[in-house]
Amino acid sequence: MEILNVVEPASNFGDLFGAAAYGFMALLLLSFVYFAVRDGEALPAIILGIGFVFLTLVCIGAAADYLTPDPAKYEVLITDMSAFDTSKYEVVEQHGKIFVVQEVAR
């Protein structure tokens, strides 16, 4: 197996922006919950509290997706397919004789 090129993963700035936006909306809902509780409004406080918990979970998911690195991909030329280590690499794409492989997650 001869490595021809390392394919860089795409930037995932959208995940970071989404995490920040959802975090801001969750904080905004938390302030609404505070004002609803302070004014003695039980039903709006419960509904806004559920929305706050939901947005917090979405924010955590987006942040976790941003922080999880994408596996490295390589463009390789495989001369002997029987010698290809399938326990370490998996074939993602094939362009003629050039294969795009990535490391198998363990």
Keyword list:
106 residues; alpha+beta; 4-stranded antiparallel β-sheet; 2 helices; 4 strands; 23% strand; rod-shaped
Please give a structural write-up:
- By secondary structure, the protein is of the alpha+beta class.
- It has one domain.
- The chain is built from two helices and four strands.
- The chain has helices spanning 13-38, 42-67, and strands spanning 2-7, 73-77, 89-95, 98-103.
- Strands 1-2-4-3 form a four-stranded antiparallel sheet, with no helix packed on it.
- Helix 1 packs antiparallel against helix 2 (42-67).
- The longest helix is centred in the first third of the chain and has 26 residues, at 13-38.
- The two termini are 21 Å apart.
| Tally of individual domains | 1
Summarize the amount of helix as a percent range. Answer: 40-55%
Strand order of the largest sheet: 1-2-4-3
Tally of strands: 4
Weakly predicted, low-confidence segments: none
Radius of gyration: 23 Å
Structural class: alpha+beta
Largest sheet geometry: 4 strands, antiparallel
Q: What portion of the residues fall into strands of 2 or more residues?
A: 15-25%
Distance between the termini: 21 Å
Order of helices and strands: EHHEEE
What is the gist of this entry?
It is built from 2 helices and 4 strands; from the N terminus they run E-H-H-E-E-E.
